[in-house]
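Lab notebook: predicted structure, single chain.

Context: the supervisor wants predicted structures on file for every construct in the current expression panel, including those that have not yet been purified. This is the next one on the list. No modifications to the sequence; it matches the entry in the shared construct table.
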Amino acid sequence: MYKTLFSPIRINTVEIKNRIAYPALGLLYSYDSKLNDRYYAYFAERAKGGAGLVTVGPVGVDFLGSGLLALSLASDDVLPSFQKLSAIIHDGGAKSWIQLFHAGAYSHPILIDGKQPIAPSAIFSGYSRVTPREMTIEDIQEVQNRFVQAALRAKAAGFDGVEIIASAGYLVSQFLSPIRNLRTDAYGGSFENRTRFPMELIEMMRSALGKNYPITIRMAGNDFVQGSNSDTETPEIARVYERAGVDAINITGGWHESRVPQLPMELPRSAYAYLALNIKRAVSVPVMASNRITDPATAERILTDGYADMVNLGRVLIADPEWPLKAFEGRADEIRPCVACSQGCTDQVFSGQPVFCIGNPRAGFEAERNIQKTGDPKRVMIVGAGPAGLEASITATQAGHLVELFEKSSDIGGQLWMAGAPPHKREILEYVRYYWAMVRKLQIPLYLNTVVDMALIQSKKPEFVMIAEGAESLIPPIPGAMDTGVFNAWEVLCGNPLLGKRVAIIGGGAVGLETALFVAAKGTITPEILHFLFTYEAESVERLRELMFQGSSRVTVFEMLPKAGKDVGKSTKWILTDNLKRYGVKVNTNTKVISIQNGTLTYEKDSESIQEAFDSVILASGSRPVQQLSREIESLKIPFVVIGDCIKPGKINDAIHAGFLAAAGIGTVSF
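Prediction complete. Output recorded below exactly as produced.
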């Protein structure tokens, strides 16, 4: 089905079985820069899952450039552990690569024992919040030699190739950038001088590694930082790399400090493939495309349309390491989706915590979270087909139990429908697609529009019950909150009712802010209409921007806390905040709503009582657990567990992981 995707490709002398690469991603599975069993188990699954090339990294070349959190190849002592990892990847059927890394000004002093980072120039870094020391010529030569020595160790450890990271704003990017490199010597100033550091580095590596050993480089197709290199300059940089001796070029988006989203679901699928094509036009070596390539059809199209020669599936293979195998076997509908939420990966790394996946309970836990076939299959009744109940039903069935799944509404998914309602969040609905596919594949009996009570449980005579009743909207103790015409966020996100021109949202947490965007986007033009109007120059660019962001309602959010969005992920909060501004959403913080009366809100702000009239009022004050069955079932003396939001409202990962773990533990609960 995906003929090009699964055709072989050669990088230098190494033949790779397909066009799928797993790129380097920080995992933080150790805090001593060393490999361990958690890394081994993780990479074993990515290799066995069918990827043609698996990259380990980022791997530091010295302590000052990588610190305590990144893996390191800075000494011969670590060779045995990397030899073991290379063998594991090969045993899984993939070729093994290592990405060599130096952060430069992005190194944080906390991670390098309080030392001052080094960089091409002593310019304050907004990313690490420190001013680095300008590198001397001796520093430059030392770092280049460190890269070469690390590359030789990678080769000695059995890795099939090495990649230099020259993207994301790290050291090589800093040398290339006219706003980060203000040197006046041979390594700064002109384009030729700014490219000298990576050019020499590649040439030194080629000389040391030999002509037949693959060297690749990962570069930004556009830094997406004002004043730095854009996609006008990057093709010429790629030509420098090719002339210096690289065998393939791996294209990604911009720097970490870019104000253009690089990874989350706001970025459309394959949006940066055009950057790969821009480089592919300039060079003759293979080019890899990256960022939000989530499904096999998109990956195939990137290749057949000539954007690139290979595709990187990074977080996608965290979500489902068997993505390649499932695509090859025609089982694409069974692929666990990466919804680009950034919660288990990017947010974790930014917090200094190990990577996991909200939708794959085994990611990062491959050694300990395995589904064991039971020798004592039980009749299991699962109440609630939200994410917790769905994951539990799939896991229990795969373990060999006889599962029946009950849901009171007309579809599966529960709160996933609410979470995926805003236009920029619709990737979340991929979970509904996935769970439907698995329910059908595993032939799990599913009873929709069925309210479960004690009598039904007794009539079914289950040997084990899993209760996932979920949660319901919390109505705050505000006079008028129950009046006709006052909506809650769940009703708005799931039912999309007609709203007025002036809309108030009470509650500025994640749900309130997402609801604000959902409402503010109503009445704006779609991407297809924008494309049409732009193509035929029907409106000015200024007018098109107005049509994109000025909808049918003006939205105001009221939040009691000093800041809104306290529960929004670290790596995506700035995107949400920027979008609220684009859509003209007004956010009042330190504001307490006192009452609602016929659409008029009375609220306190800065010790002043204010009244303001609105056409529609929406409550976004959180949720509370539904605990009807869970309070009654103990009297039946049937082994049971309670999972998901009916214990305590949480995030999607709390529900999915709880469902998996509870199902894996069936048989350990008894009365």
